[in-house]
User: Which sequence fits this backbone?
């Protein structure tokens, strides 16, 4: 999915793409990490924004992607999931990074990158251009738990979402003509 997305954006004429990548673990290792994250943020609750206070109870992993400056400062000392991965997730993430490297994709590991929905597992990613690194043109990852949320069973899956309006605006701003 990462390679397909890179190829699509490159075919549009967008250059200098940058991959931000992380893992959110699985049902084996994520609960332990979640507990460590809650323990850390419990001592930091006075310094986080109102959205993060809500996230603390509902989805603590989302504390990691807050854009409020004060929350970003607190996040710097937060535990990272890479230190809490089970062997299967650790091996999987290394294999994904090898695939990325073998295809000469410029990437940046980002231990604070999370996707906000509970059906994500293992690899998560965002793709931006160096021209505007804070504007994600695409994002996605593994959706292994989506089938269960929809009332079925766990089905290994991957997906990506692209912000077409963002891509068009970026291309206009960079004077990239559609191909």
Assistant:
């Amino acid at each position: 999915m990462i390679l397909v997305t890179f190829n699509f954006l490159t075919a549009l004429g967008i250059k200098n793409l940058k991959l931000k990548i992380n893992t959110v673990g699985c049902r084996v290792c994520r609960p332990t990490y979640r507990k460590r994250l809650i323990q850390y943020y419990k001592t930091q609750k006075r310094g986080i924004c109102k959205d993060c206070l809500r996230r603390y109870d509902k989805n603590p992993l989302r504390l990691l992607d807050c854009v409020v400056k004060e929350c970003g400062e607190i996040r710097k000392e937060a535990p990272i999931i890479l230190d809490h991965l089970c062997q299967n997730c650790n091996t999987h993430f290394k294999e994904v990074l090898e695939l990325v490297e073998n295809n000469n994709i410029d990437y940046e590991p980002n231990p604070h990158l999370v996707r906000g929905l509970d059906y994500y597992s293992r690899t998560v990613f965002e793709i931006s251009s160096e021209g505007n690194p804070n504007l994600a043109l695409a994002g996605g990852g593994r959706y292994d738990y989506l089938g269960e949320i929809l009332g079925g069973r766990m089905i290994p899956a991957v997906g990506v979402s692209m912000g077409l309006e963002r891509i068009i605006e970026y291309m206009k701003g960079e004077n990239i003509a559609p191909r």
